[in-house]
Amino acid sequence: MEIVYVYTKKRAEFGKQCNFSDRPAELHVDILPDPSLLDNFIERDPVDNGIQCVQMMSEHEVNTERFETETRGINHTEGGWPKDINSAEVEQVMRYRKKVEKDEMYVNTIQQLGSVMEHIIRQNNALDIYEDYFADIEVEGTDEPPSAKTINVFRDPNEYKRTATHISWFPDGPRKLAIAYCNLEFQRSPTDICHDSYIWDVENPNKPEMTLKPVSPLVCIEYNPKDSHILLGGCYNGQVAYWDVRKGSQPVEMTPVEHSHRDPAYKTVWLQSKTGSECFSASTDGQVLWWDTRKFSEPFESMILDPTKKQDLTKSQGSMALEYEPTMPTKFMVGTEQGSIFTCNRKAKTPAEKIVSVYPGHHGPVYSLQRNPFFPKNFLSVGDWTARIWSEDIRESSIMWTKYHTAYLTDGCWSPTRPAVFYTTRMDGTLDIWDFLFKQNDPTLSIQVCDDPLMSLRAQDQGKLIACGSQQGTATLLELSEGLIQLQRNEKSLVTAMFERETRREKILEARHREMKLKERTKSKGAAEKEDDEKEEDYDEEDLVGKAEADFFDTIEHAVKLREKKDAEKKKQEEALKASEDAGSGKVSPIDEESKEKEE
């Protein structure tokens, strides 16, 4: 049952109906000021007002569109000549100059300017405007905690995001950086994916300064340290290409496919040479190839990374990392897919002698390899879940290593300004900054750069800026605090002492390990001799068994022969008995007949 109640009200009780209309404003009341009312005003003292400790703030979010800027250059040419004078014609220019120099106004003007210029030159000779007044004063280290802040973020402009696989800084200052973009997941890239890589201006993250257009995606890219206009790149299809930015986006020349690598060229490095045109590349096909950009048709030298030193390509190990120190032009190092680290000598007499030594390395591929810029005998390797510091004198194990992280390590490098600082990136998007003078078990500073895995890392030569590349094509530029850049007091001597101490410790452990191995070998040799004796005893037992069996059969045979002899004698006795019985009856036995014949 539904109950409904209706409220009713008369129309007259609603009041007057409102009628609205447009009409000009009307003044109904005008109250003039009355000074006498001021006497009725009383000041309140004290006055209580509730306030906050901070000023009231409001927050607003606005998404603004990125403003794209372009950089354009202007070429200035010599001007100021009259219209009838062609500045390219030497004769016309000389004729006009002689005419001007004969003019009286020209002589007077030069004399007036000469005195002013002489005064300025004397000032420059008297004062050194570039003098550093506080060069001898040591800068005391600040106590501020280590920190890093994000300056810029460079994103892959393409719709399908590719991994920022490698980063190279502009050699003439922190103004530009080149980033190689490539999708390393085999056969998971769309067919129409973009192959371009870019050169970015550090101060303009909105648009790349220049686009590099290779025929295959670039896995790595490197600026030429002698000529900042030239870049070298290793492609996904194994080719090596180089660009001259003055000649456009297309590569100047590429290595032929038939003479290139069979796998992606994961690392390319410029060599220290007089011409600045030599380079070498490494790939997972197990080869290291040397090139000259003046003759890119074929490599002028090659080496197979065969740990057996037989130069057998079927037994070679694929390369993932290269290390080359210009101060040691004949030596280089290679990190392999199998986790080994090869130290090589390019100028060896035979191909087998090119591989000097092999370090055990990591449980997985070695992604990064770099010598310490202050102590070249010590080098850093990054692979599996750890970063390790090695000494050339110890080949069995590393002298220092980080803890095993939960996430895989992908790249690492030393600080160019501090010998005790190095950086590593992880698959969980974290950048770790290690200072083993300050802390050895844990990183000094860990920064969550992004949520995507970080795949590449590069520090600028001045040490202040670091660029990290992610799997989604984002390159993040970080600026470090002064404490992580400036060389600390006695840092070199402390690092030297630490490296020497750890090397000495590893040598003692290595000697102890060898001693234990020798003891085990001696013990195992004694055990083997004992086993041989036991085997000989087993052989003696087998001989005894055979002898016993022979004796047994001989005994049986002898017993059989005796039995046969007894049976024969018994048979003879029976025959003799029968013969005697026949003799009693008048019959002569055959034996008696024979005996009689003998007697006769």
Summarize the structure.
The chain has 600 residues and is of the alpha+beta class. The protein has four helices and 28 strands. The N and C termini lie far apart (167 Å).
Q: What is the helix content?
A: 10-25%
User: How is the biggest beta sheet arranged?
Assistant: 4 strands, antiparallel
* Spatial ordering of strands, largest sheet: 1-28-27-26
Taking the alpha carbons of the first and last residues, their distance comes to 167 Å
Poorly predicted ranges:
587-591
Report the principal-axis shape. extended
Structural class: alpha+beta
Integer average pLDDT? 84
**In what range is the share of β-strand residues?**
25-35%
How many individual helices? 4
How would you describe this structure to a colleague?
The protein is α+β, with helices and mostly antiparallel strands. It has four helices and 28 strands. A four-stranded antiparallel sheet has the order 1-28-27-26, with no helix packed on it. A four-stranded antiparallel sheet has the order 2-3-4-5, with no helix packed on it. The radius of gyration is 49 Å and the shape is extended. The N and C termini lie far apart (167 Å). About 1% of the residues have low confidence.
